[in-house]
Design brief:
Belongs to the ABC transporter superfamily. Its EC number is 7.6.2.8. InterPro entries: AAA+_ATPase, ABC_transporter-like_ATP-bd, ABC_transporter-like_CS, Metal_Ion_Import_ABC, P-loop_NTPase. By secondary structure, this protein is of the alpha/beta class. It has helices at about 5-15, 20-25, 70-75, 120-125, 130-135, 140-150, 170-180, 200-215, 225-230, 250-255, 255-260, and strands at about 30-40, 45-55, 60-65, 85-90, 95, 105, 185-190, 215-220, 235-240, 240-245. The protein has a single domain, classed as 3-Layer(aba) Sandwich (Rossmann fold), CATH 3.40.50.300. Strand 9 (about 235-240) and strand 10 (about 240-245) form a beta hairpin. The longest helix has 16 residues, at about 200-215. The two termini are about 25 Å apart.
Amino acid sequence: MSPQDTESATAAGTAERPTAESDAAAAGEPVVHLADVAFGYTATPVVEDVSLTIDPGEYVAIVGPNGSGKSTLMQLMLGLLEPDAGTARLFGERADRFDDGERVGYVAQRASAAKEMPITVREVVKMGRFPHVGFGRLSGEDWAVVDDALATVGMSAFADRRVTQLSGGQRQRAFIARALASEADLLVLDEPTVGVDAESVDAFYDLLAALNAEGITVLLIEHDLGAVVEHADRVVCLNRELYFDGPTDEFVESDALARAFGTEARVLTGGSG
């Protein structure tokens, strides 16, 4: 598929998808709310006294050095871990008791491990409907949602291709399509561009921007500080505790990067990974 075809497919798909922001905003509830959250493994603290709120439609990046607690914080937000102290709420409910799985789409850092799965792209995206229909037969309406998700990420032409035959960037698009097929309000991505070539990374972030523009809340853990500065609207900088939480341009001007990263700090405008 040419870049022009991909752009057209993305535009067509996003034009037809309903706005996810409206439901959450109408309910007047934040997507994520953490209050004085702390968590540790045995006696080792990993996250300490973290409070933050993510509202519907935001595009938030979590950054920090290796071992800073980024992935742990994400798991606390999603209810995969229960805080040792404080509270974590997801769509207004206790995160560890939240069971409305179709509202959250998750793309793991190692989604590329699925490259060994002997299934097609359409079968991957079909899995996004399971929270709605279980493992039964999909209706015509369900398949329409699957096809729309494929069009949104520019993967319609690859629908019948096996996942084993995709590039890293194409695989990540397929897994985003699976999240879209679940009609998620929140898209969570854990370092999704690891192992993806530079050209595909640019297209990947264009896709995230288009999805966010139509109202989907994006929560991104990213090691590439240059990409974060270029694309995210808000930065949460973490190294066990919060060093910064605010607009991206203010993060660039602050000393949070040096304080949190120390000698690992890099020039943001360099876009290094």
